[in-house]
Amino acid sequence: MSRQNATTDLWNSLSPDLIGIQIEGEIVFINIAGANLLGAATPEQIVGKPIMDFVHPDCRGMFAERVQRTTKEEIEVALGKEKWIRLDGTIINVEVAAMPITYQDKLAVQFIARRITGASK
Questions:
Q1: Residue 116 in contact with residue 95, Cβ under 8 Å?
Q2: Of the candidate ranges 16-25, 55-64, 73-82, the one whose mean pLDDT is the lowest
């Protein structure tokens, strides 16, 4: 088993939180819990989509600033509260943290999110 497959298996089996990786705004990895949080049955329904598709318009400016800090300054970004949008359009409140990583030989952002309250419209 490759190291990347072992890591993916770990993220899928042990974390109840969303774990994802985005490169230049595109989601290139999301674990099963993350796919479920965003309303998908499988990660394949999310991978390849722009991360901004899931960030509520009220939070996109703040989100973009946090991503820029992560990639340009290569620093971790502590938990912050945001509103995200599930595939069915339901708005959820989440806490998100991010850090820069190298993924598939590219600068990427690994992010972790967890739902903090019920749904709203």
A1: yes
A2: 73-82
